[in-house]
Design a protein that fits this description.
- Strand 1 and strand 2 form a beta hairpin.
- Helix 3 crosses helix 4 (108-122).
- This protein starts with a strand and ends in a 7-residue tail after the last helix.
- It has a 6-stranded mixed sheet, with helices on both faces.
- It has helices at 41-48, 71-76, 93-103, 108-122, 137-149, 167-180, 193-199, 217-223, 229-237, and strands at residues 3-12, 15-25, 30-34, 56-61, 64-65, 78-81, 155-159, 185-189, 202-207, 210-216.
- By secondary structure, it is α/β, with parallel strands linked by helices.
């Protein structure tokens, strides 16, 4: 498995944000990670990417145990787009992406080609000489996607990847993520059920820190034949999560 999360629990003081969850994701899967606000999605993503520690539990990423000794090696294998999408507002788009390529230690002879290729794929060609701070929200989100993909990671963890995009941009980015996921591993969080149906093979639904569903889309449809995905989500998350 590319990602294996085992019995992960995270406490913030006396508050249990995530409660003993486990899942495995293999290469080539695009998995939707769904849940209401405050359910524990971002906390789980932050743990997998090495930004926070677990209170209890463990993870294996690309065959490496998730610990301090392997932290840098694991981060090199992951592309992460957090919900906040941080960036350097005073840097120009191409300048910023070139800087990131250098940070990821892409060979200097390959940087220009790698940056130009990503700018073309994500649709930033008309914006590449602008300062990031002057971009619209949608184009800032595209810059965030490039920074997550520039080093061609084995795993992409994306928190609301199409936030702020217009309908045409959403279709383009959906196709890019789906294509990228054919031989990679993608875990994405979104509140938009159409995104899940367009991109994902499987969904994990978390409610109040516990997993309440982990199924393929086809299995969920068979289990709830009269409901659409949004209705299934509401059914599973309106009631308190049950003990496993």
């Amino acid at each position: 498995m590319t990602i294996s999360l085992q019995h992960f629990t995270k406490m913030y003081g006396e508050q249990k944000a995530v409660d003993n969850i486990s899942f495995d994701i293999k290469k080539g899967e695009v998995v939707g990670f769904l849940g209401p606000n405050g359910a524990g999605k971002s906390t789980t993503m932050k743990f997998l990417t090495g930004y926070i520690d677990a209170t209890e539990g463990s993870a294996t990423i690309c065959g490496m145990e998730h610990n301090k000794e392997n932290s840098i090696a694991i981060k090199r294998r992951i592309g992460y787009l957090p919900e906040s999408n941080p960036h350097y507002s005073e840097m120009y788009v191409k300048e910023y992406l070139t800087f990131l390529a250098e940070v990821h230690q892409i060979p200097s002879s390959e940087i220009n080609e790698a940056v130009d290729q990503m700018i073309e794929q994500i649709g930033l060609k008309q914006e590449m000489h602008k300062k990031i701070g002057n971009l619209s929200k949608g184009y800032k989100q595209r810059v965030g996607l490039v920074q997550a993909m520039i080093h061609k990671p084995d795993i992409m963890i994306l928190d609301e990847p199409t936030s702020g995009l217009d309908p045409n941009q959403i279709v383009d980015i959906r196709g890019l993520i789906k294509s990228y996921g054919k031989d990679k591993t993608i875990l994405l969080s979104t509140h938009i059920m159409q995104e899940v149906e367009a991109m994902c093979d499987r969904v994990i639904i978390i409610n109040r820190g516990k997993i309440v569903a982990d199924e393929s889309l086809d299995t969920l449809r068979a289990q709830y034949p009269t409901l659409n995905l949004e209705e299934v989500f509401r059914t599973l998350t309106q009631a308190p999560a049950q003990e496993a």
